[in-house]
Amino acid sequence: MGQEEIKEPCKKQACDIQACLTKNNFNSQRCQRVIELLESCCENCKYNSTHCASVSGLLKQIKKTTKEQKPKV
């Protein structure tokens, strides 16, 4: 494990999210799995990474979009 990984334990997951979002025209629903991986990383490091600040916003966006797409009964 490199020195940078110790300082920023969730950097890889954050980069994976950026790559996924770029590939999918910034549709966060298509990147839900990689966003969840970042969330898991943040939980494991007790949110001690600068990359963890964005995960809650991404999760809220996914939940909001999912809620809007559910058909009303």
From TrEMBL:
It comes from Papaver nudicaule (Iceland poppy). This is Cx9C motif-containing protein 4. It comes from the Eukaryota. Transmembrane segments: none annotated. The lineage of its organism: Eukaryota, Viridiplantae, Streptophyta, Embryophyta, Tracheophyta. One of its GO terms (cellular component) is mitochondrion. Gene3D superfamilies: CytochromE C oxidase copper chaperone. It holds the Pfam family CMC4. Keywords: Disulfide bond, Mitochondrion. Disulfide bonds join C10-C41, C20-C31, C42-C52.
